[in-house]
Write a structure and sequence with these properties.
6-stranded antiparallel β-sheet
Length: about 350
């Protein structure tokens, strides 16, 4: 090739020094000719470009990381599925720092629970969750609990030997071959909401640069979770407002009907049906006081048979703790029962009705 081209400029080679070290070199070769044009030798100019190559690799890596963060940011801006964003984030974080696995624990109350993970961490997390489903947020309690408590990143060269690792954590890290690990907090307005963890099968210490990258991903995760929380709050507020409007409309309809009709049964029937619909119940009855006893008066169709059987029972008197209706009238306070077949103030006869 050199004979054909006469000159070979800027040819990159890895060259071994006398001391055994290697370096990246830029080599240019050309022929030396005599006065008649015959080739009598070659001239090689060699330049050490090791630092240049390192700078190029660092620049390429930085671009790759920026592209990944940009992709996550774009997905975060347009996605309503938080799990999808977290999955992408975990896989990209693990790939860019050269780790084997990654997972996120989120704060629920005063404990950390598992939220999302790469497939490579699935078996490890299933077993550790079975043994310790909730980690307490406390400095020194576990490495993720420590990160949450201090709001600072933590790296471990070997997770099987680290001081802040729980005994079961050390045992399972050894079982699944996890050694080097890093954890960074998820912070939103300086408020911790979880921990991003990466783990490697090699004994290694994640660098400051890698920790900075993980922190950037953790910030994106915190934003995704905060966005999901705000959307959830907005949806709940919307539902609450719609429910409130619906209830107001129902009360308005009942009030209008009450003002315009002379048939009390019609008004009561409308009342029980609207009450059932608005609170999502299956049945409703109204029992009225007649003299000193309580008498069932009206019910929804779904409670008709129950009401018929209830009417056949002995009449109820106003007295605390004898039945639900009598207790409410005696105390003049609302009463709720999670299970009327087990409630303390249920008429023994009514308790047996189907």
């Amino acid at each position: 090739m050199l004979m054909e081209r006469v000159q070979l400029p800027n040819y990159n080679l890895a060259i071994r020094k006398k001391d055994g070290d290697w370096f990246e070199a830029d080599v240019s070769l050309s022929f030396l000719r005599n006065h008649s044009g015959a080739v009598v030798g070659t001239l090689a100019v060699t330049k050490d470009i090791t630092e240049q190559k390192r700078a190029e690799e660092a620049l390429n890596k930085e671009k790759e990381r920026s592209d990944a963060l940009y992709q996550v940011s774009n997905m975060l801006a347009g996605a309503h599925d938080t799990d999808e964003v977290l999955d992408l984030m975990l896989n990209e974080a693990a790939r860019l720092v050269g780790a084997n696995s990654a997972y996120i624990r989120l704060l629920e109350g005063d404990s950390l629970v598992m939220s999302a993970a790469t497939e490579t961490a699935a078996d490890f997390l299933a077993e550790i969750t079975e043994n310790n489903p909730r980690l307490v947020v406390e400095g020194g309690s576990s490495f993720v609990g420590h990160v949450m408590a201090t709001k600072k990143p933590l790296v471990m060269e070997d997770a099987t030997k680290y001081m802040f690792q729980t005994p079961i954590g050390r045992q399972l890290a050894k079982k699944y071959g996890f050694r080097g690990a890093g954890a960074v907090p998820l912070l939103a307005n300086d408020r911790p909401s979880g921990v991003l963890v990466v783990a490697d099968t090699r004994i290694r210490l994640f660098t400051d640069d890698e920790v900075s990258l993980l922190t950037a991903f953790a910030d994106q995760a915190a934003l995704a979770l905060e966005k999901a929380r705000l959307l959830s709050d907005a949806e709940r507020e919307k539902d609450r407002a719609e429910t409130e409007n619906e209830r107001s409309d129902a009360l308005y309809r009942v009030s209008n009907r009450l003002a315009g009709v002379h048939d009390t049964d019609e008004v009561l029937d409308l009342n029980v049906n609207e009450a059932v619909r608005l609170v999502g119940a299956n049945a409703a009855t109204i029992q009225l006081l007649k003299g000193e006893v309580i008498v069932p008066i009206v019910a929804t169709e779904s409670a008709a048979d129950f009401l018929a059987d209830l009417t056949a029972l002995p009449t109820l008197v106003i007295q605390e703790a004898t039945s639900g209706a009598s207790h409410v009238l005696a105390t003049k306070k609302p009463l709720v029962s999670e299970d009327v077949t087990e409630g303390d103030y249920v008429n023994p006869g009514a308790r047996l009705l189907p």
